[in-house]
Amino acid sequence: MEQTACPDCGPATVSHAIERWNVRADAFFGYISKPAEIVWNVVRPAVAALKPGRIAPPLFGLAARLRLGTIVRHPDAQTTDRTRVIWEEAERRGIAMREFRPFGLARNIYFASYEGDTRVFDGLPRPRLANDTAQDWMDDKGIILERFAAQDIPVPLGKSVTNVAQAEAVFRSIVTARRADAVIIKPALGSRSRHTYLHLTTEEAVRNAFAKAKEISPSVAVEEELPGFVFRITLVGGEIAGVMRREPPHVTGDGTHSVQELIDRENKNPLRRGPVFHELSIDPLVLASQNLSLTSVPAKDRMVILHPKVSRAFGASTTEIEAIHPDNCELFLKIARYVDDPLFGVDFIMNDMAVSWRKQRCGVIECNSLPFIDIHHFPLTGPARNVAAKVWYLVFPVRK
Predict the structure, then answer these.
(1) Global confidence as pTM
(2) Could you give the angle at the alpha carbon of 372 between the alpha carbons of 157 and 224, nearest 5°?
(3) Tens digit of each residue's pLDDT (9 = 90 or more) over 197-231
C-alpha cells in the first residue's frame, strides 16, 4: 500500500497504524510464546543435530511448483543492500543462497546450502545453536538504558515512558541532574530516525515531540542529548567487525564559499546519486542555531550541520573508522560478552573514537538485532569492511 509522505518519517515513510500494531503484536506473541521457548531450548540441540534445514530446498521447491511462491536464485531489484552483500559473498564462497518469495512478495525468507548443510533464516544467517535470549530485548531502547546502566556500561540519562506526564518528569530530572541543554525523544522500538526529535529544551517541545513519537510506538524514550557523533559498532562472533561513524548532513567551510555554494558542490558528488547516499537536506532552523544562513561564508574547517537527522536519506554521510582507542575496544567487547549474541549492532555517541570513552561524555543509545552490515561495505570515506565474510564464517566455519 502506498503511504502518504510523512515529514516526521522522512523519505522512508511507513504506516503509523501498522508500525504500532507490529510493536504490540511482537510483544503479545513474545509473551505467550515463553512456555514454548523453554521447551524448545531443551530439545533444540537434538533437533539441530538432525540438520532439519535439509528439508528446506525440497519444501520450498514444492511450494513453488504449487504456485504458492517463487524461488529467486540471484539478487535482483527487490534485494536490499544488506541482503545483497550477504548474497554476493555467499556466491564467492560457493554457498548456494536462495530466497523464497510467497506469491512473489519479498519477505526476507532465505535458505543457504553449503557442503550438505542448509540453514533457513530471516534477514541474516545465524549459527545453528546461537544464543537467542537477547533477541527478546536488545531492540528496546528503554531496556537497553536500564540493563546497560546496571552493568556500568555508559548510557545517556533517561528512560522509556508511556504518557506525556512521565515524559515531562524525565525531562525535568535530566535538566536537574545533568543541567543538560536539551533532550532527545524517539520511539523506544524501531524508528530508523523516524519520529525522532533533537534539541528539545522546553516542556512544550517535549510534549509535542512525545505526541509525534507515540504515533508509531506505544513507548517513547526520553534521553539526555549527548554531544558527538553516532558510531555504529557491528559485533560478529563476539568480535568487532567494523566501526562506522554516522555524520549528519553537513558541509565543511573553506573560508571562501558560502554555505549554499558548498552544498551545491557536495551534491555533485557522484556517490550522492543513490542508492546508498543522497543529496544534502537543509533545515533552516538548524542553520540559524549556528548563526548561519545559506549566504554565510563559514570559516575554514568549520563543520556546518544542515539537518538534525543522522540518516542517509537526509544526506548524512559515513566514515569507516580505523583509529580506535584500546579502552573503547575493550568496552565494546564487554558489551558483546554481556549481550551474548553472535550478530548485532551497537549505536554509540562520542566525539572521538581515538580517545578513551572514560575521557568523554558518551554512551550507548541503542542496539540492533538485525544490523545493516552493508554500511561497512559502502562507506562514503574510509576503508570498506567485508562484514558479510565474517558472518558466513560464523555460520559455515570452513574458511575465512
Answers:
(1) 0.86
(2) 10
(3) 888 999 999 999 999 999 888 899 999 999 999 99
